[in-house]
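Project standup — Tuesday

K.O.: blocked on the structure for the chain from last sprint. Re-posting the sequence here as requested.
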Amino acid sequence: MMAKNKEPRPPSYTISVVGLSGTEKDKGNCGVGKSCLCNRFVRSKADEYYPEHTSVLSTIDFGGRVVNNDHFLYWGDITLNGEDGVECKIHVIEQTEFIDDQTFLPHRSTNLQPYIKRAAASKLQSAEKLMYICTDQLGLEQDFEQKQMPEGKLSVDGFLLCIDVSQGCNRKFDDQLKFVNNLFVQLSKSKKPVIIAATKCDECVDHYLREVQAFASNKKNLLVVETSARLNVNIETCFTALVQMLDKTRGKPKIIPYLDAFKTQRQLVVTATDKFEKLVQTVRDYHATWKTVSNKLKNHPDYEEYINLEGTKKARNTFSKHIEQLKQEHIRKRREEYINTLPRAFNTLLPNLEEIEHLNWSEALKLMEKRADFQLCFVVLEKTPWDETDHIDKINDRRIPFDLLSTLEAEKVYQNHVQHLISEKRRVEMKEKFKKTLEKIQFISPGQPWEEVMCFVMEDEAFKYITEADSKEVYSRHQREIVEKAKEEFQEMLFEHSELFYDLDLNATPSSDKMSEIHTVLSEEPRYKALQKLAPDRESLLLKHIGFVYHPTKETCLSGQNCTDIKVEQLLASSLLQLDHSRLRLYHDSTNIDKVNLFILGKDGLAQELANEIRTQSTDDEYALDGKIYELDLRPVDAKSPYLSQSWTVAFKPHGCFCVFNSIESLNFIGEFIGKIRTEASQIRKDKYMANLPFTLILANQRDSISKNLPILRHQGQQLANKLQCPFVDVPAGTYPRKFNETQIKQALRGVLESVKHNLDVVSPVPTSKDVSEADLRIVMCAMCGDPFSVDLILSPFLDSHSCSAAQAGQNNSLMLDKIIGEKRRRIQITILSYHSSIGVRKDELVHGYILVYSAKRKASMGMLRAFLSEVQDTIPVQLVAVTDSQADFFENEAIKELMTEGEHIATEITAKFTALYSLSQYHRQTEVFTLFFSDVLEKKNMIENSYLSDSTRESTHQSEDVFLPSPRDCFPYNNYPDSDDDTEAPPPYSPIGDDVQLLPTPSDRSRYRLDFEGNEYPIHSTPNCHDHERNHKVPPPIKPKPVVPKTNVKKLDPNLLKTIEAGIGKNPRKQTSRVPLAHPEDMDPSDNYAEPIDTIFKQKGCSDEIYVVPDDSQNRIIKIRNSFVNNTQGDEENGFSERTSKSHGERRPSKYKYKSKTLFSKAKSYYRRTHSDASDDEAFTTSKTKRKGRHRGSEEDPLLSPVETWKGGIDNPAITSDQELDDKKMKKKIPKVKEDKKKKKTKNFNPPTRRNWESNYFGMPLQDLVTAEKPIPLFVEKCVEFIEDTGLCTEGLYRVSGNKTDQDNIQKQFDQDHNISLVSMEVTVNAVAGALKAFFADLPDPLIPYSLHPELLEAAKIPDKTERLHALKEIVKKFHPVNYDVFRYVITHLNRVSQQNKINLMTADNLSICFWPTLMRPDFEKREFLSTTKIHQSVVETFIQQCQFFFYNGEIVEIANTVAPPPPSNPGQLVEPMVPLQLPPPLQPQLIQPQLQTDPLGII
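H.V.: unblocked you, prediction finished:
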């Protein structure tokens, strides 16, 4: 029962593989493939297949258990599954013949039969015989699998006969076939099935295979299977076929042809390979190893299948190739990365085209290695090439291997870099060229879109070269620039019109009327119109400006960090601190003077002679003077020596300088040398002591008795000493044999010692806080923010002075000056503010004087000055200071000349001081510039303070703490202060505005005055002090009358210039009447001089230009002034007002400077007239007549001063009153009348009747219906123009001579019927075609030049300036409808071509315009205005023809000979008297100095 339940055992077969065997002689160099066939069948895996099996063995291997002394091998067994699913086991035996490796003869075995008989044996026996695997197994059986042949014996069931069909190895195929035939005979005897296996078919010889097949066909039932053990083709087939022959149940064996089996096998291998490669490609790290990857993939079926088919070795090779590809891909990417980085490296190391444009690659490499940034871009590796080093794995190191540059790729990148630089240079050049092209196009306005401009630059070379993005970028940059410039100019314009804004009431907000007035005035300005397309920005700027006017602070200043207040605080903080430190250092260094260091300055050896003379009078360089011994250190300096500043060292700091001369030349040398030293010291401003070094002039004796030049030298030396403010040592009386006298030397040395002592006395007492707060005079210096000069320049007159010190703590914008004015030393507080900060001071604080600074290069600076000065009370002295670069600016720049002349003019009108500061000159940076102004302020101090205290309308009388501090006294005597020797610089040269401020007294006054070193003048014999009572009174008592003396504070002009100015400024014959002598301007109330402005628009040519009419009572008033003036010539005339005048007028309240200056007053009047221009001239005149009936003073009768709505917060004269309601009613009455007039001006367009007598669907139609986007020109116009230009351009009288009317009509009729008609075929004349063309335009419903633009064209044609006129016309043409514009451009271009042939056709642009302008503009000649403007209209069309290229093709303006510009509009009359520019002498030339030595040898003043 148990045996029945057991599964049946699968059948077992033993197959013996036989074939040619034996020695090399028998079988050749290689076998027939029996072993490989067995190996592939039993162990089909690629890794278990061994292609090499040897039959030559040693005796030991032959006797081993594998061979076991037999000539056959047991290959083991394999189980096969048949197609029907039945399994069978096959044992494989290989019959061979082993050769002794020693004798090369067959080994002797137990079976001594020959191979063919032995191989046919069906019973095999060998005890403990082991399975054979490979040759390496022999002798190492223990290292391989050990499997014994079953039971030591096997019965052979079938034979597999192997025949090698390859070329063979030294073997003849016939011999093999003969051997096989014999073997087959023996096999047949065993009655066992036999199958022939044709081996090595992958190397098959075709006729060998045919012979085998022929051999098999001769044998009955003998099959041939074509095999290849190496490729594993049909190996299993030959064994299964034999099994099928053995087992009759399995069916007839199927033999597969070799090629089919090969294809099947290859397809299997290819599929497995693809799957395996996909597996391998999942590995992305080229650092991965086969061991790691194989362990990871070993269980994957695709991996196992490929290993079985192709083997591990091939799998490893495939993996290695993939890894190599990954590495090469990584290297390629790194190389690409490096190559892509090269341009950036070249841009860093070789950015300049000029350096490398002509260098070859090797020279460029050397240049790069020398760059400092070379190591940042490149790395030099020790081993090369770089892709075989570990540098490829350094991902974070982005530096380029330097050996990469040796490749052609790198060189190509370099060449591309050079070309890129060249093209980039060209691109930049073209962009800049395009930028300049845009700058030349005048009509580009701020905010204009690019699309509107692009059509005008389409033909520009630069535009065509650059890209669209570049062109837009350039245009955007250009727009930013012009917008920024337009905004800056708009802001500048607002400052220029400061009078419009600074009359606002700062405690309120601007009314709508005031804003309307501002817009009305500003709208006339081109700078206002320039921002037309940026109206919101313009309005924002205007509101920001108004906001700043209302709330001015240095934080909100429109100049930002350039605000004057910020600059002043910074400068004073640093300069005053440095000044105090230098004073203390100087004091400590010079407390005990035992040694005196002296420079001796002279020419031609004079300095050395004086030094020798002093040493002769000394003992071991020790000099006895006044009972004390001084050690002298002398340093002679002549023309060949370095400057004193270069000789100045830490060890040698001079106490003074002796300047010796004996001729005019040596005196000039001294003056020039000292001037250079002071200039250098002032520029560097490092050592104040050097800038104020004491000088002493010494006149050397003439050896040849008394020289004739001695009086001249004495006079010139004294004059230079006065200018330098230093002692002059004259030659003593008598005759001396030597050049220098002991008396001279001692006198000079005493002067130096006194100067040193005086300097110590000045600087040693550092002022206390109490002293600082007690100022005698409070001066405010005003400057405008953003002016083109440094704050350092306007403060240099104070900061360069030894008498300058810091103000009280908290006064960051103030400084103190100690100066001798009159009889005493005074302390002056100078507060430096911007104009916007000064407004609060002007309204609320006590100020004794204003120094108003303005730039002569900037109109806005003058405008701000005028606006500020207009509201200053006329009792307060004013010093105007114009700032420019040099005196030459006045003569070379008309704008600067005009502003300086205006400043001079205003100063003359208000009796103020005027001077100029020059940034390129050092002589004007001295306190002496303001000495006379300080004197004038001191004279008027009492009156100013009385006026300030009596002003009852002021809201508060306390002074602001951030500007001034209260002073407990007004004028405290400084008895304990010695005389100042401050600021020894020479006074400034003459001002180009005149002779400027007179710094020194006239020779007649000089005897009564003595000068200190600073130029302060005071009487030598001073009167007793009479000011002690001032300590107990806040308001000083009236000053006693004093004799009238010549005023030294009035600017002295050349008499001829004075006459010229008077003739230009005061030419009103009514003011110069001989009946009443006029009083001095200072003796009159300035408000009395102003009355009604008379109309000047209809003024006759012979009338006066004076705009002010003398008031009705002006004559009587002048008589009163005249009487008071005559009777009080000996009285108190301080500030220009006599005591009697004050009594006759009562206690006169101070007025403002705007009522004292026509320039200031008329500026405001000009604004008023522009904003009230809607009213007719007659109405304005009537209004003024009505106002005259009042009893007010002349100044209040002016409409400007009446509180009309737009001037509610305007100029406020305390003496003015007005009827507000009456004025409001009058203004309301004016407005409707203006509107009515405007309505009447509206006119209908004129449409003349058509001349055609037939219906047309073309002629007489709107122009828009006759064109398309593709054809913007009407076809009829195009045909006519082409016909005229092709056939009759040179026809005499073209467009002037009329053509045949019938022909003209016929042309149009024929065209109506057929638009493609040819005018040439019609055989018509040129004049007929020209007439038909004109008729086309005459029949249009609307003229080609629209009626709406006629007024604008008329106004533009009246512009006097040609360039401006042409640009205005060009802007109007742009307003044409696009269709009209294209046709108009086409027609004008044609007419321009006609005019170019005017020498032949006699049709100039003028003649053509006469013929064509009525056709193009279609005027209504029934209207008078057209009759009066026909010539202007004709000239407009003529201009279009002449300047065709400019208007339509962005060409240049053509200069037309004998072209008369349209007359400018008639002058409506000036509202202000024109200022007469001063005709000034040219600057001094060096060659002119010598003849003037008697009066001014050096030209320092």
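K.O.: great, moving the ticket to review. The radius of gyration is 60 Å. The mean pLDDT is 75.
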